Amino acid sequence: MVTFLLCIAMLVVGYVIYGRAVEKFFAPSNNPTPAIANPDGIDYVPMSNAKAFLVQLLNIAGLGPIFGAISGALWGPSVYLWIVFGTILAGGVHDYMSGMLSVRNDGASITEVTGKYMGKIMQSIMRVFGLVLLVLVGVVFMVGPAGLLAKLTANVSFLNIQTWTLIILVYYFLATLLPIDKIIGRFYPIFGICLILMAIGIAVSTMIHSAERPMMELTLVNLYPATGKRPIWPLMFITVACGAISGFHATQSPVIARTIKNEKDGRKIFYGAMVAEGIIAMIWAAAAIAFYYDPSKAASGMGLEALLKVKGGNSTSVYEMCKALLPGVGTVIAMLGVIACPITSGDTAFRSARMIVFDWFKLDEKRLKIRLSVAVPLLLVGYVISKINYGVVWRYFSWSNQTLAMIVLWCGATYFATNYPNKNLCWICAIPATFMSSVSVTYLMYAPECFNLIKQGHTGIVISYAVGIIVALAFLVIFIVRAYLSPEKCVEYQKSVKLGRKE
């Protein structure tokens, strides 16, 4: 329990100290935000800080810090370190930069922001990549809840998985089309509070039951069950995405960037929501290890066999934990977590996809017919993809998710290097960008759904590691050359100084 409490404390201290340092480097101004300068009643709608924070948390969280953290628990307490340091040094920086760069660019989608600072080629790549990821997210967070709802209503013949998928799709259509304050701004704060209370309940109950289910202290030993042994690197760093860093967040941050009323609120909303998600992930990871670990099987390397049998983080494991740890209300809370939370991330995924298309083709979001012409095809594509095997969709989503995070961090590093007199500020983004480049490329080489070098055994692992490190270092060298040898620009910095912003 000591390790768990220390990790929670580190996340809070990280928000206060490192989050403040990132904010100081970025230097938020008093200039009017997009919501204040260009309100349109659709996407650009001012929100209070509390509401913006809760909506941001629910947008980026969904099932990520629950399913991902429980699946990451298969490797044992080593997952704690990734959640803590990933959140503070990578995820928080990623979310803050993606949100604030959108604010600085009139609420532009991350695809347009990336294009501005990294060039037209990267912009085109990001437009396609971002759309694909968002549609995959929408599908993942549509099929999962539909399947569970079908199980719960199995006695009603017409309420099968296809029916529930269509019902959720209709809701997505409304949430994608209507002004942000009609559904999302009105109801999501309630779901956000429920997500937090759900995590607190699990944490408190796990600590109360520590006598029979002790919370494991930190060990770097790979505890993945021997029958299906998987290496920590890079698999755990891909599996635990939203609880440490997630490129999906960069697609969601512009939604809230169009609603905040002051740049100086960015740390509370963007960095703060990521830290809150890290805390939620930490709770679920620690609770899963305590709940499923069997000390009597530790010698055989099968201590977490029970968690592997339920296939890690999914509706089954969440339901079992909630029912046992929170008797009485556990079932209700579990249903809220595995049905409402993913749905509330899926709809904003399609909304963000619609925003990317509008930014790409310079369309007018005020015109209902145009919103319909974009929203309907996107949702139809999502429905078609929902017919594909769910496991396959999830694996491609996971890799594309972390790859997008890598690109956004490089974008943040480029922004600092080309728009501020002190180029060395870029390292708060460049270091985690290099790390995530290695994670993404190594996984690309290793994973069965990619180049599948895992089938080559130890040789395949070595090749995957080598390629991942070499490519990451190559990206770093290219960045250093472009950042330090290119002419000083500082265009935005100079413009902001004239408007009275302090560095």
Automatic annotation (TrEMBL):
Family: Belongs to the peptide transporter carbon starvation (CstA) (TC 2.A.114) family.
GO term, biological process aspect, one: cellular response to starvation
The entry's keywords: Cell membrane, Membrane, Transmembrane, Transmembrane helix
Annotated InterPro entries: CstA (IPR051605), CstA_N (IPR003706)
Chief localisation class: membrane
Compartments in which it is found: Cell membrane
Transmembrane domains' residue ranges: 79-97, 128-149, 161-180, 187-211, 231-248, 269-293, 324-350, 370-390, 396-418, 425-446, 461-485
Membrane topology classification: Multi-pass membrane protein
Keyword Repeat assigned: no
Residue span, CstA N-terminal domain: 4-142, 152-289
GO cellular component: plasma membrane
Protein name according to UniProt: Carbon starvation protein A
